[in-house]
């Protein structure tokens, strides 16, 4: 009887391990700069986006998808070309910044325009940092373009998807940057221009924070590094890619 119990327990444990191994990776991320479609939705720059406004980092679907929503039906608005998706004006070389709210071993990062893969970066199964940047040459393209970016996870069948609308050759550098401050007049001594920040307040999920905004969380003050809409789980101590301790 005791031997029978041990055999059953071993079988259940083996099955449990199999189920656990097959579970999706707890990895999430999206392109924050230039703003991807999910970033545009989370920032309120595009309306009627559905659930993606709360979780722009969650467009996770099977590998091999060639659409903006990763084959996930509840995010299908991201592939709706009738929406007025803003296009970021860039030069012919663009630096894409991924914000990862959870990191996972990575095989490759891919970038497509239409059916053409314009760039691939091989991580060889390594774990990425909290932010990842790739510089892609788009000199063979001009005008309005939609770039599909794919983050392929190394040890699952899934990938994360993000579409970025661009106006290629419309000016700008690798990433949008603020205009330089005007030169001081010759008759005046130039003085440093203070950084403009939003009034400090207590961090709260669901709030949009611009770069430079300051908040307090658990009695500690933080400065926003990347514009975003805060989500539960993105508290400043947990997201060094988004917040810097002051």
TrEMBL record:
It comes from the Bacteria. GO terms for cellular component: extracellular region. Residues 172-198 are annotated as: Disordered. GO terms for biological process: carbohydrate metabolic process. It holds the Pfam family LPMO_10. GO terms for molecular function: carbohydrate binding; hydrolase activity, hydrolyzing O-glycosyl compounds. Residues 175-193 have a biased composition (Pro residues). The keyword Magnesium does not apply. Residues 1-27 form the signal peptide. Gene3D superfamilies: Carbohydrate-binding module superfamily 5/12, chitin-binding protein cbp21. Residues 200-246 form the Chitin-binding type-3 domain. Keywords: Hydrolase, Signal. This is Chitin-binding protein.
């Amino acid at each position: 009887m005791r031997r029978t119990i041990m055999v059953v327990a071993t079988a259940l444990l083996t099955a449990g391990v199999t189920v656990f191994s097959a579970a999706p990776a707890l990895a999430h991320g999206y392109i924050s700069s230039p703003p991807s479609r999910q970033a545009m939705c989370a920032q309120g720059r595009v309306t009627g986006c559905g659930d993606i406004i709360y979780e722009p980092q969650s467009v996770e679907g099977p590998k091999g998808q060639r659409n903006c929503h990763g084959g996930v039906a509840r995010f299908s608005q991201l592939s709706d070309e009738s929406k007025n998706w803003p296009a970021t004006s860039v030069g012919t070389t663009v630096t894409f910044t991924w914000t990862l709210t959870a990191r996972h071993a990575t095989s490759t990062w891919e970038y497509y325009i239409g059916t053409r893969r314009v760039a691939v970066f091989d991580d060889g199964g390594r774990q990425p940092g909290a932010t990842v940047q790739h510089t892609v040459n788009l000199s063979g393209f001009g005008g309005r373009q939609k770039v599909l970016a794919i983050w392929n996870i190394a040890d699952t069948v899934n990938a994360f998807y993000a579409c970025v609308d661009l106006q290629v050759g419309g000016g700008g550098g690798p990433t949008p940057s603020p205009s330089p401050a005007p030169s001081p007049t010759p008759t005046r001594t130039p003085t440093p221009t203070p950084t403009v920040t939003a009034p400090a307040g207590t961090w709260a999920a669901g709030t949009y924070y611009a770069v430079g905004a300051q908040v307090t969380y658990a009695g500690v003050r933080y400065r926003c590094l990347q514009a975003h809409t805060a989500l539960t789980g993105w508290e400043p101590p947990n997201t060094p890619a988004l917040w810097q301790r002051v």
